[in-house]
Amino acid sequence: MSLVTEPKQGGCALPEITRERGQRQVFCGLAGIVWLHRKIQDAFFLVVGSRTCAHLLQSAAGVMIFAEPRFATAILQERDLAGLADCNQELDRVVADVLERRPDIKTLFLVGSCPSEVIKLDLGKAAERLSERYSDRVQVIDYSASGLETTFTQGEDACLGALVPRLPALPSIERSLLVLGTLPDVVEDQFRRLFEALEIGPVHFLPPRQASELPPVGPGTSVLLAQPFLGETARALHKRGAALLSAPYPFGVEGTLAWLKAAAAAWGVTPERVDEVAAPAVARARRGLEHYRELLAGKRIHFLPDSQLEIPLARFLQRELGMELVEVASPFIDRQLMEPELALLPEGVRVTEGQDLETQLDRVRAARPDLTVCGLGLANPLEAEGLRTKWSIELVFSPVHGFDQAADLAELFARPLTRGALLQV
Ligand code: SF4
To answer: Which residues bind [4Fe-4S] cluster (predicted)?
Structure first.
């Protein structure tokens, strides 16, 4: 059974992928709570974890909270580890406390962590028990964001995957477009207007702004991924009958146009009509990119594996801004979801799947690229060696999809180089 139902883009030979395994350095899936809680406005994320989990979440979200946060950590204490019965009672007490204080919460996510998995605390059962107890006002859903063998963007995949069984059924005679992946509201609104102008619809987004208003899914659903790291959710939607549209991801002008054209093809709208409707936004985006092309063309960039956005971003930087790709490494490469992007990479580029930290750092030191995209933990040591870096997590926190954000996306890569040049003056 094939997940991809639309014709492949391009048709070029795909680059060879080198697999590496070894020491890893990535954030865990708890980081996803930072952007998920901002998007889903009636949800609360309760991490069942340790003080380490609480610290990670606070430091990842610390600079981004403008209102009372809708996340917290129920910290497992030593006596919880001694007896699971007590642990469940304690969890029920914490949940009661949260729900009493926050009557606006309609969905409570119980988020598993390394400690809760190690002691085998069954959050699925806890979610069932609490769902029954609060059935009149709150749905309780569990997922795991543990850092064992995962990377930080998989937290969103696990969260959205947990929502799929709860999506209402789309009536069999209806069809709809489901855009998959967290988008800031402003970007969602831009895409909604473009789809409306193209007469594509109805359009739904997963995650929605309100978890109490989940989008429908069924055999009439076409899924268009806005983020490349949502393979498990895409497969769960496919099991519910949805068809997946194959397209590059909506980063930069080229990616966004191709992405819209994949949806247009499914609705019988011509590529020429997409070009016509998108023309003003495309012109604006191209004008915005001109300045950054001057700064970035010819500069050498190395992606270390972290966010799973590496391949689409490398494609954008090479094809629209003239950057030279030294290496593009990603923690996992889902061939089906990444094929249209791989086909757009230049011939001969080194593409790596997985992490072997020391070997990869040796290659960065040998190549001395102008810019290295990496996780937070690696940025400071590389900067100390005189290498310019970009934090990959910032690329997930920032609005970077679509035409109107193309220049902002380019700016994120230009900024460290401009700052580096100033420091050298
Ligand atoms: S979930 Fe695991 S990796 Fe993430 S902060 Fe907690 S203990 Fe650390």
So the answer is: 28, 53, 114
